[in-house]
Amino acid sequence: MSSTKPKLILVHEPEKACFDRLVADGHASERAAEIASYLAQSTDLGQEFDALDEACRVRGLSFTPVLLDDAAHVLAGEDPATTLVWTLTDGIAYFRGGAAPALARLGGFKTIGADDALFALCQDKFRSGAVLGALGLPVPQAGLAHNGQWLVEPPASAAGWFVKPNRLGAKIGIWPDSRSSDLGHALELSRRVFAAYRDDVVVQPYVAGRNVRASFLGLTPEAGVEALGIAFVDSGADFQTMADSLALYGETGAAAKAAGLYAEPELVAVADIQPAADAGIRAIAGRLMSGLGLRDVFSVDLRVEADDTLHLIEFEVCPGLPCFDFRAYCRSQWGLGLADAMAEAAASRLAS
Question: In whole angstroms, how far apart are CA 304 and each of 107, 279, 313?
């Protein structure tokens, strides 16, 4: 067994490991690289490991980053009484991070974040939407299409529809024409997504409004919706595409920054402009925490109309911690850099 000094183990899946596995499974290299870009936060957070190690050290913890493929072996040698497992990425299909909280539960380890069932649910947008709807939350009803064939037809919509892959994140498979004015085009997008990524698509009625991100990191286990950071995310476009996402994160994003092509979206506190919407979003987050089991660290994406109408789009149990918006949240809400905020949250769980 390891020493009794409290330890934070951060389990992460690197882009290259995912890329190699996808190529071996027959995905084209370019498509595999796009899919693996979802794991760019593993690439980006690697630059923070020294800072995380120091932030943990000053709080009496040790810090060990662990590759997902090594997690089972590493956890077998650790003491569940003094070890906290933090899973950086989710996934049950293209990505496999959902295995880490399940391994932690199997070994009796404390974890930070939602239970492993939600790691599976959040990466299936159609099933997730059905659960959110059953909770009475304002999620757009969705259709589901597989390679140009309806599995579930979407509802009628005078404003058109929005089409996105069912199991892929980070805007992968979202193109400038992903807002569709007719269902024939939506089925064509379904064929395009299947050809590129072997995924189904969800087809939701297009909803108006500004994009909002609600971020949460509880520095103590008792933190509630008062600790949410809720901001409009203004990128200058109605919605972000895969090209936008690739220019923000990971190695591709680093190259874009070096070439002067990086345009970070603007964050504006919702409470400063639409306080009623801010209160409504906190109520939604409270329902997600009590009814769905979100805790510790998560994010929620919404669309907010000028009259404070709210549309819940999706939630993430593994938000992009090193991304600009979560860093900004840690600074504004907690007055801490990312490494110190993470270490503080881990220390509070190990002390409880």
Answer: 42, 12, 10
